[in-house]
From TrEMBL:
Any Pfam family hit: FTSW_RODA_SPOVE
Name of the protein in question: Probable peptidoglycan glycosyltransferase FtsW
GO biological process, one term: cell division
Catalytic activity: [GlcNAc-(1->4)-Mur2Ac(oyl-L-Ala-gamma-D-Glu-L-Lys-D-Ala-D-Ala)](n)-di-trans,octa-cis-undecaprenyl diphosphate + beta-D-GlcNAc-(1->4)-Mur2Ac(oyl-L-Ala-gamma-D-Glu-L-Lys-D-Ala-D-Ala)-di-trans,octa-cis-undecaprenyl diphosphate = [GlcNAc-(1->4)-Mur2Ac(oyl-L-Ala-gamma-D-Glu-L-Lys-D-Ala-D-Ala)](n+1)-di-trans,octa-cis-undecaprenyl diphosphate + di-trans,octa-cis-undecaprenyl diphosphate + H(+)
UniProt organism field: Marinicauda pacifica
Keywords: Cell cycle, Cell division, Cell shape, Glycosyltransferase, Membrane, Peptidoglycan synthesis, Transferase, Transmembrane, Transmembrane helix
Single Gene Ontology MF annotation: peptidoglycan glycosyltransferase activity
Annotated EC: 2.4.99.28
Amino acid sequence: MIAASRLRVAALWRGLDRTLIFIVLSLIGVGLTLSLAAGPAAAERLALDDPFYFLTRHAAFAVAGIVLLIGTSALSITGVRRIAGLALIGSLGLMALLPLIGNEINGAIRWIRFGSFGLQPSEFLKPAFIVIIAWLFAEESRGAPVPGRLIALLIYAVSVGLLIIQPDFGQTILLSVIFGAMLFAAGLPWIYTAGLGVAGGGLLMIAYFSLDHVQARIAAFLAPQAEWAQTERARQAFAEGGLFGVGPGEGEIKRLLPEANTDFVFSVAAEEFGLLASLAIIGLFAILFAQAWTRALRLTDHFAQLATAGLALLFGFQALINIAVNLNLIPPKGMTLPFISYGGSSMLALCFSAGLMLALTRHRPGAYEHRS
C-alpha cells in the first residue's frame, strides 16, 4: 500500500511542469524578502509592537498557499472543474452577503472578517470564474446542448455587478479583459469581441460620470500633488534606487507609502534592490506567462487549453496592472502583485490558481500534441 502510494506521488510529480513550480516558488521567495524589507515600516506606521508582524503572517500564508497549491495540482481534469464550480458558487454567495456582513476599509466593502484574518471573496472568484467559463465555452464548441456563451455571459454579469457594488473597479476591469480574451480564443469573431470592448468602454464612461470617487481618483492621477500622491512617491522610488538600489532596509519611500508592503511593494524593490532586481521580477512574470501559454497551446483538451490560457492571462494582466500603477502609468487599482504583495486572501487564491494550472497542464497520456 505504501509502495503504491509512493508510486502515485512520484508519477504526479513527474507529470508537473517544473518550470512553473520553480517560477511560482521564486516569486513567493521574492515576496518574503520584500516583506522583510517593507513589513517593519508598515508595522511601525500602525504602532504594532512586533516589527515582524507582517513578515510572520506573510510566511504563514505562503506556507498555507504552497500546501494548497500542492493539493490542487493533484486534481484530475474533472476534479479541477468541480472544485472551481464550488469556489465560484461560494465566492459569489459571499460577495452577495458583503453589504450585510462585510468589513469596510477605505470606503470599500470587500472583506469578511474572521478574527485577525480578512477574507476577500473576489480573489477566489477570479480563478473559479476562468475555469468555469472555459468549461462552458468548451462544452458549446463540442456540440453539447448547452448555451455555453449565454450562461457564461450571465455569470459574468452577476460577477461584475457584485464587484461594482463593493466597489472594485480594478477587479472588474481585470475580469472583463480576461473574459473578452477568452471569448475571442473560444472562436468569437473579432468584430463582436471589439463590440464588447466598446460596450465596456461605454460602461467605464458611465461609471466616471456617475460615481464621485471614480472621478476623484482619476483627477488625482491626472493632476497629482507630488508631496502627497502615492503614485508620485512610488515613481520616486525608481529614481532613488538607480541600477543597484540603496541596499536592503535602507529605503525611505516605504515609510511614506501607506501600502508599501501590498500595492506598492514593487516600488520598495526598485528603491532597495534597484532596476536590475525590478527587471528580474518582470522577467519571472514573463517566463510564467510564456510557459503557461506554451503549455496551453500544446494541450489537446479544449477545456484545459482555454482554462490554462485564462489563468495565464490572470497572472500576466494582474502583474501588469500592479506594475503600471507603481510606474504611475494608470490610476491606483488596489491590486496586488501576484505571489509578492502581502495579503492572505491574495496569496491563497493565487496559489489555488497556480495549483489549478499545474493540474490542467500535468502530463497525462494523450494530453499533449506531439510536435517536432
